[in-house]
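Sanity check record (used in CI):
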Amino acid sequence: METEVLKIDRENIDEDIIKRAAVLLRRGELVAIPTETVYGLGANGLDEKACLNIFKTKNRPADNPLILHISNKEMLYNLVEDVSDDAKKLMTLWPGPLTMIFKKSEIIPEVVTAGGDTVAVRFPVDEIARRIIEEANIPIAAPSANISGRPSPTNASDCYYDLNGKIPLIIDGGDCNIGIESTVIDMSEDTPTILRPGFYTLEYIREILPNVALDDALVDDNKIPKSPGQKYKHYAPKARMQVYVGDMASDFIYKKAREYQNKGIKVGVLVFEDNMKRFEGFERISFGDRSDLSQMSHVLFTALRKMDKLKVDLILAEGVMDNNLGKSIMNRMKKSAAGNIEYL
Ligand code: TXA
Ligand code: MG
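Expected output for Threonylcarbamoyl-AMP synthase:
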């Protein structure tokens, strides 16, 4: 299959391109679309066959449910059984990078929920995503548009790399603002529980819902995550990766980088801007200013993919403290590095 990439100018959105995407989606085809978090691999969320095709195309484990994307708050009520008062409070963060889990309604195909009785719903703020959903006039099931296990794509060319030849259309809306996936929060039980940290942090959500909890698996590696997607190896670059956190991290990375390089191992480093100069002579990518974690989340996945393209054997990366947005970033880095994190 020929994969077409159509670029949309955000200043002047071409309605014909929006319509092309919507028509394909209504017909049961898959289309990769930009959102403010990462690109999504979209399909008609009420079409069982189209959703099955998402699993096949991504090579996604069958027990990992999909998120349904909507383009206005009213669409939610057809998809779910009940919207609690707490959920209504969190809906003030919609549209935005927040996914809520509810008891599902009758109309949701089983494949979307992986057989479970809950469904994840998100109302993205990205204008292109919203326009496409609105035009298609159906909830759009969309996991991140990567082959399962790879870092989520945050631009159209990363989607193309993974999906070329597998889907008819990629909508190029430029770089995603946020760069890591939405916060997933379970609203289907009494205590709202964060299953996947994202741009909206525990600290932030606690200001709206003081009783919000973190899934046990986010605090204890031995617990089974309630969000199936969290249990898989994920966001993985091809190279082995080690993450170092703390005041001594960059000294340690420097020592290790030289050591490995002397052994003939091709090393790539991911460090904050203030350390870039020190790593001249190594493949290096900057996380930006260390006081700006939103910049770090913006570049993280693209940086991992760039390291793959540079064909490094080993990635040595600076990590951050495990709070606020740092918690969401470390959640991804921990998986990218298969748990290889050292606190120095
Ligand atoms: O930002 C995002 O959320 C992106 C964009 C495209 O919207 N989408 C995304 O989808 O990251 P995906 O499929 O890569 O991740 C969805 C996560 C998975 O960890 C999945 O297990 C979890 O949400 N999830 C979905 N439905 C669930 C449910 N009913 N119960 C528990 N976890 C659920
Ligand atoms: Mg994903």
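The chain has a mean pLDDT of 96. If this sentence no longer matches the regenerated tokens, the check is flagged for review.
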